[in-house]
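Researcher: Next sequence.
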Amino acid sequence: MPDVFEYIPHPHITAREAAGPPKVAAAVKAVHGPGPIGRFNARFGFRITVLVGTMWTAYLFTLLALVSAPSAFASGDRLIIVAWIAQTFLQLVLLPIIIVGQNVQAAAADSRSQATYDDASAVLAEAKQIQVHLQVQDDAIKEILAEVQALRAAG
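Model: Next structure:
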């Protein structure tokens, strides 16, 4: 009896195992290109983001913004007060806080990506075990068929 099934692994499996799960840091490199200027821009932008994207920077920027607050409020001019709030305080303080939030979201995305990758790897391992199990069953069926055919021929 010919083989009932021949398992041929999908080529993506090997490539995926070599690549690992996608990460945010890898995507950052892809944004600016693979050349030396692209790598520099990615590294520089990443370092600035790491530096500015902390709550300590938000606290420092708050103190820096508050230095000019007395002058803005002492002026009594609504336009100057609104401009100080919008252009100085909100922009200066919210920038690092937003980056902190984005960093938290990126870490969560990396976590989800790793979990999905691990789940897919587990499913693949289970599927390989199923293939082994089915091959054992195919071999047993072949033996049974051979015995049945031998009995018929003898019979």
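Model: The chain is about 85% helix and 0% strand. The mean pLDDT is 86.
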